[in-house]
Protein backbone atom coordinates (compact mmCIF):
# COMPACT_ATOMS: atom_id res chain seq x y z
CA UNK A 1 0.00 0.00 0.00
CA UNK A 2 1.32 3.40 -0.92
CA UNK A 3 -1.13 5.98 0.39
CA UNK A 4 -0.89 7.23 3.96
CA UNK A 5 -3.78 6.29 6.23
CA UNK A 6 -6.51 3.68 5.93
CA UNK A 7 -7.30 2.84 2.27
CA UNK A 8 -10.78 1.65 3.23
CA UNK A 9 -11.59 4.96 4.87
CA UNK A 10 -10.28 6.81 1.79
CA UNK A 11 -12.40 4.59 -0.48
CA UNK A 12 -15.55 4.98 1.62
CA UNK A 13 -15.25 8.76 1.58
CA UNK A 14 -14.56 8.82 -2.16
CA UNK A 15 -17.42 6.42 -2.97
CA UNK A 16 -19.94 8.49 -1.04
CA UNK A 17 -18.79 11.65 -2.80
CA UNK A 18 -18.75 9.98 -6.23
CA UNK A 19 -21.24 10.51 -9.02
CA UNK A 20 -23.48 7.39 -9.20
CA UNK A 21 -22.09 6.30 -12.59
CA UNK A 22 -18.43 6.72 -11.46
CA UNK A 23 -18.21 4.17 -8.62
CA UNK A 24 -15.94 1.87 -10.60
CA UNK A 25 -13.52 4.75 -11.30
CA UNK A 26 -13.22 5.37 -7.55
CA UNK A 27 -12.55 1.69 -6.85
CA UNK A 28 -9.98 1.54 -9.65
CA UNK A 29 -8.15 4.56 -8.23
CA UNK A 30 -8.09 3.00 -4.74
CA UNK A 31 -6.88 -0.37 -5.97
CA UNK A 32 -4.19 1.10 -8.22
CA UNK A 33 -2.91 3.49 -5.55
CA UNK A 34 -3.10 1.24 -2.48
CA UNK A 35 -2.76 -2.27 -3.91
CA UNK A 36 -0.76 -1.65 -7.12
CA UNK A 37 -3.57 -3.17 -9.17
CA UNK A 38 -2.80 -3.51 -12.87
CA UNK A 39 -6.43 -3.71 -14.00
CA UNK A 40 -9.88 -3.73 -12.38
CA UNK A 41 -13.21 -4.92 -13.77
CA UNK A 42 -16.68 -5.01 -12.23
CA UNK A 43 -18.76 -7.94 -13.45
CA UNK A 44 -22.48 -8.01 -12.63
CA UNK A 45 -24.69 -11.09 -12.79
CA UNK A 46 -27.28 -10.98 -15.53
CA UNK A 47 -30.98 -11.47 -14.81
CA UNK A 48 -30.84 -15.19 -15.60
CA UNK A 49 -27.75 -15.71 -13.41
CA UNK A 50 -26.03 -17.40 -16.33
CA UNK A 51 -23.23 -14.92 -17.10
CA UNK A 52 -21.26 -12.10 -15.48
CA UNK A 53 -21.51 -8.92 -17.54
CA UNK A 54 -18.64 -6.38 -17.49
CA UNK A 55 -19.63 -2.84 -16.55
CA UNK A 56 -18.36 -0.71 -19.43
CA UNK A 57 -19.37 2.41 -21.26
CA UNK A 58 -22.48 2.08 -23.39
CA UNK A 59 -23.35 0.04 -25.39
CA UNK A 60 -21.67 -2.58 -23.15
CA UNK A 61 -19.84 -4.54 -25.81
CA UNK A 62 -17.34 -6.34 -23.54
CA UNK A 63 -17.50 -10.14 -23.53
CA UNK A 64 -19.44 -11.69 -20.61
CA UNK A 65 -18.06 -14.60 -18.56
CA UNK A 66 -20.11 -17.76 -18.09
CA UNK A 67 -20.94 -18.44 -14.44
CA UNK A 68 -20.79 -22.22 -14.81
CA UNK A 69 -17.34 -22.52 -16.41
CA UNK A 70 -15.08 -19.64 -15.31
CA UNK A 71 -13.09 -18.80 -12.19
CA UNK A 72 -15.09 -15.60 -11.82
CA UNK A 73 -18.29 -17.64 -12.00
CA UNK A 74 -17.05 -20.12 -9.41
CA UNK A 75 -16.17 -17.24 -7.08
CA UNK A 76 -19.67 -15.84 -7.58
CA UNK A 77 -21.29 -19.22 -6.93
CA UNK A 78 -19.18 -20.06 -3.87
CA UNK A 79 -19.21 -16.47 -2.58
CA UNK A 80 -15.52 -16.60 -1.78
CA UNK A 81 -12.45 -14.97 -3.31
CA UNK A 82 -10.60 -17.14 -5.87
CA UNK A 83 -7.24 -16.57 -7.52
CA UNK A 84 -5.91 -17.58 -10.91
CA UNK A 85 -2.68 -16.81 -12.78
CA UNK A 86 -2.63 -13.41 -14.45
CA UNK A 87 -1.45 -12.56 -17.95
CA UNK A 88 1.84 -11.29 -16.50
CA UNK A 89 4.47 -13.88 -15.64
CA UNK A 90 4.27 -13.28 -11.89
CA UNK A 91 0.88 -11.65 -11.68
CA UNK A 92 -2.39 -13.02 -10.33
CA UNK A 93 -6.05 -12.22 -10.81
CA UNK A 94 -8.29 -12.30 -7.76
CA UNK A 95 -12.07 -12.55 -8.10
CA UNK A 96 -13.83 -11.01 -5.10
CA UNK A 97 -17.62 -11.41 -4.62
CA UNK A 98 -19.72 -8.25 -4.50
CA UNK A 99 -22.78 -8.88 -2.31
CA UNK A 100 -25.05 -7.06 0.13
CA UNK A 101 -26.65 -8.96 3.03
CA UNK A 102 -26.87 -12.18 1.06
CA UNK A 103 -27.93 -10.56 -2.23
CA UNK A 104 -25.28 -11.60 -4.76
CA UNK A 105 -24.55 -8.81 -7.24
CA UNK A 106 -21.37 -9.77 -9.05
CA UNK A 107 -17.59 -9.98 -8.94
CA UNK A 108 -14.73 -7.50 -8.65
CA UNK A 109 -11.95 -8.85 -10.92
CA UNK A 110 -8.55 -7.44 -9.93
CA UNK A 111 -5.19 -8.10 -11.59
CA UNK A 112 -2.30 -7.74 -9.12
CA UNK A 113 1.48 -8.01 -9.52
CA UNK A 114 1.68 -10.75 -6.87
CA UNK A 115 -0.39 -12.90 -4.53
CA UNK A 116 -2.09 -10.63 -1.97
CA UNK A 117 -1.50 -11.26 1.72
CA UNK A 118 -4.37 -12.46 3.92
CA UNK A 119 -4.63 -8.93 5.31
CA UNK A 120 -4.88 -7.49 1.80
CA UNK A 121 -7.46 -10.11 0.82
CA UNK A 122 -9.61 -9.09 3.79
CA UNK A 123 -9.27 -5.46 2.73
CA UNK A 124 -10.24 -6.34 -0.85
CA UNK A 125 -13.30 -8.21 0.42
CA UNK A 126 -14.27 -5.18 2.52
CA UNK A 127 -13.89 -2.92 -0.52
CA UNK A 128 -16.10 -5.21 -2.59
CA UNK A 129 -18.80 -5.17 0.10
CA UNK A 130 -18.54 -1.40 0.36
CA UNK A 131 -18.95 -1.16 -3.41
CA UNK A 132 -22.00 -3.43 -3.28
CA UNK A 133 -23.77 -1.14 -0.83
CA UNK A 134 -23.02 1.88 -3.00
CA UNK A 135 -24.27 0.08 -6.13
CA UNK A 136 -27.66 -0.50 -4.50
CA UNK A 137 -27.92 3.19 -3.65
CA UNK A 138 -26.59 4.33 -7.05
CA UNK A 139 -29.24 2.34 -8.96
CA UNK A 140 -31.80 4.88 -7.77
CA UNK A 141 -30.04 7.56 -9.81
CA UNK A 142 -28.38 5.88 -12.80
CA UNK A 143 -29.28 3.15 -15.30
CA UNK A 144 -25.64 2.15 -15.88
CA UNK A 145 -25.56 -0.90 -13.61
CA UNK A 146 -29.05 -2.10 -14.55
CA UNK A 147 -28.13 -1.86 -18.23
CA UNK A 148 -24.88 -3.70 -17.64
CA UNK A 149 -26.78 -6.67 -16.18
CA UNK A 150 -28.75 -7.21 -19.40
CA UNK A 151 -27.64 -9.93 -21.74
CA UNK A 152 -30.62 -9.06 -23.90
CA UNK A 153 -33.42 -6.54 -23.84
CA UNK A 154 -36.05 -6.96 -21.12
CA UNK A 155 -39.70 -6.96 -22.10
CA UNK A 156 -41.72 -4.14 -20.55
CA UNK A 157 -43.51 -6.63 -18.28
CA UNK A 158 -40.17 -8.05 -17.11
CA UNK A 159 -38.87 -4.53 -16.45
CA UNK A 160 -41.83 -3.94 -14.16
CA UNK A 161 -41.42 -7.24 -12.32
CA UNK A 162 -37.67 -6.96 -11.66
CA UNK A 163 -38.09 -3.41 -10.37
CA UNK A 164 -40.75 -4.69 -7.97
CA UNK A 165 -38.46 -7.25 -6.30
CA UNK A 166 -36.85 -6.58 -2.90
CA UNK A 167 -33.68 -8.28 -4.18
CA UNK A 168 -32.66 -11.83 -5.03
CA UNK A 169 -31.29 -12.81 -1.64
CA UNK A 170 -31.24 -11.90 2.03
CA UNK A 171 -29.44 -13.43 5.00
CA UNK A 172 -29.35 -13.08 8.75
CA UNK A 173 -27.99 -15.35 11.47
CA UNK A 174 -31.47 -16.88 11.92
CA UNK A 175 -32.25 -17.55 8.26
CA UNK A 176 -31.20 -17.05 4.66
CA UNK A 177 -33.34 -16.91 1.55
CA UNK A 178 -33.12 -16.39 -2.18
CA UNK A 179 -35.45 -16.29 -5.17
CA UNK A 180 -35.36 -16.42 -8.94
CA UNK A 181 -37.81 -15.65 -11.77
CA UNK A 182 -38.04 -17.25 -15.21
CA UNK A 183 -38.25 -16.56 -18.10
CA UNK A 184 -35.95 -13.87 -16.75
CA UNK A 185 -36.16 -11.48 -19.71
CA UNK A 186 -39.88 -11.86 -20.44
CA UNK A 187 -41.43 -12.70 -17.04
CA UNK A 188 -45.04 -11.54 -16.75
CA UNK A 189 -47.18 -12.29 -13.68
CA UNK A 190 -45.05 -14.23 -11.17
CA UNK A 191 -43.19 -12.45 -8.40
CA UNK A 192 -42.00 -12.68 -4.80
CA UNK A 193 -41.55 -10.26 -1.94
CA UNK A 194 -40.14 -10.28 1.57
CA UNK A 195 -39.60 -8.03 4.54
CA UNK A 196 -37.60 -8.59 7.72
CA UNK A 197 -37.83 -7.02 11.16
CA UNK A 198 -36.42 -7.76 14.59
CA UNK A 199 -39.21 -10.25 15.31
CA UNK A 200 -40.61 -11.45 11.99
CA UNK A 201 -39.84 -12.43 8.41
CA UNK A 202 -42.71 -12.04 5.94
CA UNK A 203 -42.52 -13.75 2.54
CA UNK A 204 -45.07 -13.69 -0.29
CA UNK A 205 -45.09 -15.49 -3.63
CA UNK A 206 -47.63 -14.29 -6.20
CA UNK A 207 -48.91 -15.39 -9.58
CA UNK A 208 -51.02 -12.85 -11.46
CA UNK A 209 -53.33 -14.38 -14.06
CA UNK A 210 -52.64 -13.77 -17.71
CA UNK A 211 -49.46 -12.86 -19.53
CA UNK A 212 -47.35 -9.85 -20.41
CA UNK A 213 -48.06 -6.31 -19.29
CA UNK A 214 -51.57 -7.11 -18.04
CA UNK A 215 -50.24 -9.77 -15.66
CA UNK A 216 -47.40 -7.51 -14.54
CA UNK A 217 -49.79 -4.65 -13.76
CA UNK A 218 -52.06 -7.01 -11.84
CA UNK A 219 -49.22 -8.41 -9.74
CA UNK A 220 -47.83 -4.93 -9.16
CA UNK A 221 -51.17 -3.82 -7.71
CA UNK A 222 -51.39 -6.91 -5.49
CA UNK A 223 -47.87 -6.59 -4.08
CA UNK A 224 -48.28 -2.85 -3.54
CA UNK A 225 -51.52 -3.48 -1.64
CA UNK A 226 -49.90 -6.23 0.45
CA UNK A 227 -46.98 -3.95 1.27
CA UNK A 228 -49.33 -1.12 2.17
CA UNK A 229 -51.21 -3.38 4.60
CA UNK A 230 -48.03 -4.89 6.03
CA UNK A 231 -46.52 -1.46 6.66
CA UNK A 232 -49.71 -0.45 8.44
CA UNK A 233 -49.03 -3.24 10.93
CA UNK A 234 -51.81 -5.62 9.84
CA UNK A 235 -51.51 -9.39 10.22
CA UNK A 236 -51.23 -11.55 7.10
CA UNK A 237 -54.95 -12.43 7.00
CA UNK A 238 -55.81 -8.75 6.95
CA UNK A 239 -53.04 -8.09 4.44
CA UNK A 240 -54.68 -10.61 2.13
CA UNK A 241 -58.11 -9.06 2.71
CA UNK A 242 -56.91 -5.54 1.89
CA UNK A 243 -55.18 -6.72 -1.30
CA UNK A 244 -58.27 -8.72 -2.23
CA UNK A 245 -60.43 -5.60 -1.88
CA UNK A 246 -57.99 -3.48 -3.90
CA UNK A 247 -57.96 -5.99 -6.77
CA UNK A 248 -61.73 -6.49 -6.75
CA UNK A 249 -62.33 -2.73 -6.70
CA UNK A 250 -60.12 -2.35 -9.77
CA UNK A 251 -61.20 -5.39 -11.79
CA UNK A 252 -64.57 -6.46 -10.39
CA UNK A 253 -63.55 -10.11 -10.09
CA UNK A 254 -62.44 -10.52 -13.71
CA UNK A 255 -58.76 -10.68 -12.67
CA UNK A 256 -57.15 -12.40 -9.69
CA UNK A 257 -53.73 -13.09 -8.17
CA UNK A 258 -52.87 -16.44 -6.63
CA UNK A 259 -50.75 -15.69 -3.57
CA UNK A 260 -49.09 -17.49 -0.67
CA UNK A 261 -48.26 -15.41 2.42
CA UNK A 262 -45.88 -16.64 5.14
CA UNK A 263 -45.00 -14.84 8.38
CA UNK A 264 -42.20 -16.35 10.48
CA UNK A 265 -41.88 -15.63 14.18
CA UNK A 266 -38.13 -15.56 14.59
CA UNK A 267 -38.11 -16.38 18.32
CA UNK A 268 -40.32 -19.47 18.08
CA UNK A 269 -40.19 -20.79 14.50
CA UNK A 270 -43.98 -20.51 14.19
CA UNK A 271 -45.06 -19.72 10.63
CA UNK A 272 -48.42 -18.13 9.95
CA UNK A 273 -49.82 -18.95 6.50
CA UNK A 274 -52.53 -17.67 4.18
CA UNK A 275 -52.83 -19.92 1.12
CA UNK A 276 -54.73 -17.98 -1.52
CA UNK A 277 -53.79 -19.83 -4.69
CA UNK A 278 -51.35 -22.05 -6.48
CA UNK A 279 -47.84 -21.46 -5.01
CA UNK A 280 -46.78 -24.59 -3.11
CA UNK A 281 -44.43 -25.16 -0.17
CA UNK A 282 -42.11 -28.16 0.01
CA UNK A 283 -39.98 -28.86 3.08
CA UNK A 284 -36.58 -30.55 3.02
CA UNK A 285 -35.89 -32.02 6.45
CA UNK A 286 -33.21 -34.64 7.16
CA UNK A 287 -32.94 -35.49 3.46
CA UNK A 288 -36.69 -36.00 2.94
CA UNK A 289 -38.80 -33.74 0.75
CA UNK A 290 -42.47 -33.45 1.59
CA UNK A 291 -45.22 -30.97 0.67
CA UNK A 292 -46.82 -28.87 3.39
CA UNK A 293 -50.54 -28.77 2.73
CA UNK A 294 -52.86 -25.93 3.73
CA UNK A 295 -56.58 -25.28 3.41
CA UNK A 296 -56.96 -23.63 0.02
CA UNK A 297 -58.59 -20.21 0.03
CA UNK A 298 -59.74 -18.02 -2.84
CA UNK A 299 -57.17 -16.10 -4.90
CA UNK A 300 -56.93 -12.38 -4.23
CA UNK A 301 -59.48 -10.31 -6.14
CA UNK A 302 -61.79 -13.13 -7.20
CA UNK A 303 -64.73 -12.09 -5.01
CA UNK A 304 -65.60 -9.04 -2.96
CA UNK A 305 -64.61 -9.01 0.72
CA UNK A 306 -63.30 -12.56 1.00
CA UNK A 307 -62.63 -13.56 4.61
CA UNK A 308 -59.10 -14.98 4.83
CA UNK A 309 -57.94 -17.22 7.68
CA UNK A 310 -54.43 -17.75 8.98
CA UNK A 311 -53.11 -21.28 9.51
CA UNK A 312 -49.75 -22.21 11.00
CA UNK A 313 -46.92 -24.71 11.17
CA UNK A 314 -43.43 -24.70 12.71
CA UNK A 315 -39.95 -24.78 11.23
CA UNK A 316 -37.00 -26.49 12.92
CA UNK A 317 -33.30 -25.58 12.70
CA UNK A 318 -31.91 -27.11 9.50
CA UNK A 319 -35.22 -27.00 7.63
CA UNK A 320 -35.28 -25.76 4.06
CA UNK A 321 -38.54 -24.52 2.58
CA UNK A 322 -38.88 -24.32 -1.19
CA UNK A 323 -41.82 -22.31 -2.54
CA UNK A 324 -42.69 -22.80 -6.20
CA UNK A 325 -45.34 -21.30 -8.44
CA UNK A 326 -47.44 -23.41 -10.81
CA UNK A 327 -44.98 -22.60 -13.59
CA UNK A 328 -42.64 -25.02 -11.79
CA UNK A 329 -44.84 -27.77 -10.43
CA UNK A 330 -47.07 -28.00 -13.53
CA UNK A 331 -44.33 -27.43 -16.15
CA UNK A 332 -44.02 -29.63 -19.22
CA UNK A 333 -41.18 -30.39 -21.61
CA UNK A 334 -41.51 -29.32 -25.27
CA UNK A 335 -42.65 -32.91 -25.94
CA UNK A 336 -45.52 -32.49 -23.47
CA UNK A 337 -44.03 -34.62 -20.68
CA UNK A 338 -44.93 -33.28 -17.24
CA UNK A 339 -42.04 -32.14 -15.02
CA UNK A 340 -43.89 -33.51 -12.02
CA UNK A 341 -43.30 -33.90 -8.30
CA UNK A 342 -40.58 -36.54 -8.67
CA UNK A 343 -38.30 -34.31 -10.75
CA UNK A 344 -38.88 -31.37 -8.43
CA UNK A 345 -38.11 -33.45 -5.33
CA UNK A 346 -34.91 -34.72 -6.94
CA UNK A 347 -33.88 -31.18 -7.85
CA UNK A 348 -34.47 -30.00 -4.26
CA UNK A 349 -32.39 -32.84 -2.84
CA UNK A 350 -29.63 -32.35 -5.43
CA UNK A 351 -29.28 -28.68 -4.44
CA UNK A 352 -29.44 -29.32 -0.69
CA UNK A 353 -25.75 -28.52 -0.15
CA UNK A 354 -26.02 -25.12 -1.84
CA UNK A 355 -26.83 -21.83 -0.07
CA UNK A 356 -30.46 -20.78 -0.31
CA UNK A 357 -29.91 -18.07 -2.94
CA UNK A 358 -27.91 -20.45 -5.12
CA UNK A 359 -30.32 -23.35 -4.58
CA UNK A 360 -33.25 -21.32 -5.93
CA UNK A 361 -31.25 -20.66 -9.09
CA UNK A 362 -30.15 -24.32 -9.34
CA UNK A 363 -33.76 -25.55 -9.14
CA UNK A 364 -34.77 -23.12 -11.90
CA UNK A 365 -31.77 -24.23 -13.98
CA UNK A 366 -32.84 -27.88 -13.69
CA UNK A 367 -36.29 -26.86 -14.89
CA UNK A 368 -34.79 -25.00 -17.85
CA UNK A 369 -32.64 -28.04 -18.71
CA UNK A 370 -35.78 -30.20 -18.61
CA UNK A 371 -37.35 -27.69 -20.96
CA UNK A 372 -34.40 -28.30 -23.33
CA UNK A 373 -33.02 -24.77 -23.05
CA UNK A 374 -36.08 -23.01 -24.43
CA UNK A 375 -38.01 -20.32 -22.57
CA UNK A 376 -40.73 -21.60 -20.27
CA UNK A 377 -44.29 -21.42 -21.57
CA UNK A 378 -45.55 -20.30 -18.15
CA UNK A 379 -43.86 -17.95 -15.68
CA UNK A 380 -42.00 -19.66 -12.85
CA UNK A 381 -40.73 -18.52 -9.48
CA UNK A 382 -38.69 -20.38 -6.87
CA UNK A 383 -38.00 -19.04 -3.37
CA UNK A 384 -35.76 -21.00 -1.03
CA UNK A 385 -35.66 -20.35 2.74
CA UNK A 386 -33.13 -21.92 5.13
CA UNK A 387 -34.06 -21.78 8.81
CA UNK A 388 -31.13 -21.75 11.26
CA UNK A 389 -32.59 -20.31 14.45
CA UNK A 390 -33.10 -22.57 17.51
CA UNK A 391 -36.48 -21.99 19.10
CA UNK A 392 -36.60 -19.71 22.12
CA UNK A 393 -33.03 -18.45 21.75
Describe the structure.
With 393 residues, this protein is of the alpha+beta class. Helix content is 34%, strand content 27%. The protein contains 11 helices and 17 strands. It has helices at 7-17, 23-35, 71-78, 118-138, 144-148, 156-164, 212-231, 236-251, 326-329, 340-350, 356-370; strands spanning 39-45, 51-54, 65-66, 82-85, 92-100, 103-112, 169-171, 175-182, 190-196, 200-208, 257-265, 270-276, 280-285, 288-292, 311-314, 320-324, 380-387. The strands form 3 sheets. A 6-stranded antiparallel beta sheet has the order 3-2-1-6-5-4. Strands 7-8-17-16-13-14 form a 6-stranded antiparallel beta sheet. A hairpin with a 3-residue loop joins strand 7 and strand 8. Helix 1 (7-17) packs parallel to helix 4, helix 2 (23-35) packs antiparallel against helix 4 (118-138) and helix 6 (156-164) packs parallel to helix 7. The longest helix is centred in the first third of the chain and has 21 residues, at 118-138. The protein is globular. The mean pLDDT is 90.
Amino acid sequence: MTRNGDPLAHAETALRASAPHALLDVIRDTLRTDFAALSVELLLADYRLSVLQPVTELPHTATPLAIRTTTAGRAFTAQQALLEPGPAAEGVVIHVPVAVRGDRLGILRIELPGVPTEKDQRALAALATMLGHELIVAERDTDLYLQARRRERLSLAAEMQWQLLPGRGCSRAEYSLGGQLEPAYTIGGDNFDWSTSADHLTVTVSNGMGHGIGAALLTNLAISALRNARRAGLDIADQASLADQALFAQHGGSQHVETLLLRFEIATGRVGVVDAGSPRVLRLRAGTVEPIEFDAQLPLGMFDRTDYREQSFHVEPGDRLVIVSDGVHTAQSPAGIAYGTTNLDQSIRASSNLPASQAACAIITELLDYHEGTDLVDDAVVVCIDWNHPHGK
